[in-house]
Amino acid sequence: MSGAVIHVVQHLSPGGLEVMALELARAQQAQGRPALVLSLEGNLETAIAHWPRLAGQREQLLFAAKRPGLDPMLMPRLISLFRRLRPAVVHTHHVGPMLYAGTAARLAAVPARLHTEHDAWHLTDPKRRRLVRLARRLMAPVMIADAPHVAQSVAEALGGTPPVIVMNGVDTERLRPRDQAAARHALGLPDGQRLLGIAARLEHVKGVDVALEALRLLPRDVHLAIAGGGSEATALRAQASALGIADRLHWLGVMDDMSRFYPALNLLLVPSRHEGLPLAPLEAQACGIRVVATNVGGTAAGICPRTGQLVTAEDPAALAGAVLLALEGTGDPRPFVLREASLDAAARACLTLAAPKFRAPIASCEAARES
Predict the structure, then answer these.
(1) Residue spans per domain, the chain
(2) From which residue to which does the signal peptide run (predicted)?
């Protein structure tokens, strides 16, 4: 696909990085620039089966079928793919895609190569720093960070020119305030209760266990709805039972359309132990929902300073106290998102970084998938 943007991720399974790549591709396509998302791992049918939202963008998806572990044949396949499609831009997300697809893009003479770091805590590991430095030398990309904190951490860990900051953005047309009672009814959530929400993978890094400890400290009319799945689901349900709060928990699983979830809430919780710049608080605030979050990574950059609350990680009592304050608070965080975190602005910023390299597009993304 001559002139296209190809976003490259390790895999297409529910996660903030993957959602951001999909959303950037969708927005850039709407702005008139053909855009694809290439997953190094997996295949289309399996990915859609595990994440149904992908069906809505199937014509934009490519899969490289990477084998587990080191795959020496992946690089030649990617070089061949890029030479055939002739994209204007290869935009990688995270270190695996940077190493494989970034290097292949350079060898295939792709004119513009971009790489976004979505977090920086992994760079505290010396082996990971060496790997990222190697990948950056091989790819020679324009480096992007999705939050000021990430840019600073990347510059300190890797040296060289600091990354360009392009804040994560969300679709403020799709994500907007809606009627709370109708949203709860549609999801089978209780009316008449104060409802907190978490939208996250159920993994240790997301701190859902800390939120359950905090819920135990809150009044019994405060409930918690959790949208997401992951390896800790069973352990978290057991924890809720042991804490005596199981009747105040509402497990919704992975949701394809988060614009149905946020309007049902009074507050969104982001109790993470590590983060880059998470999408969930931006999405919730676009729907007019205030946020209580741990002050980790780049999270603070995505929280409305007038309406949001930031607390120390791993502290259930501090989280519970902030929730009580926020439940009594007022104010609309949506203007903050409109000003600071528009998806349209993020997509255009990435295109601007590569604009001098663009070639003329062809008719459709489907043509690239079938070629």
Answers:
(1) 5-169+342-370, 180-340
(2) none
Supply the DSSP string of 186-200, one letter for each residue: HHTPPSSSEEEEEES
Output the pLDDT for position 118.
86
DSSP per-residue string spanning 2-52: TT-EEEEES--SSSHHHHHHHHHHHHHHHTT--EEEEESSS-HHHHHHH-G
Whether domain 180-340 has CATH 3.40.50.2000: the reply is: yes
Following CA atoms 232, 238, 242, 245 in sequence, which dihedral angle do they give, to the nearest 10 degrees? 80
Please give the CATH number for the structural domain made up of 5-169+342-370. Answer: 3.40.50.2000
- Per-residue pLDDT tens digits for 289-305: 999 999 998 899 999 99
Lowest mean pLDDT among 68-82, 117-131, 149-163, 347-361: 347-361
d(CA 85, CA 35): 12
Q: How many residues are given for the chain?
A: 371
CA–CA separation, 202 and 90 (whole Å): 31
Residue closest to 200 by CA, chosen among 280, 287, 93: 280
Q: Which of 103-117, 127-141, 325-339 has the lowest average pLDDT? A: 127-141
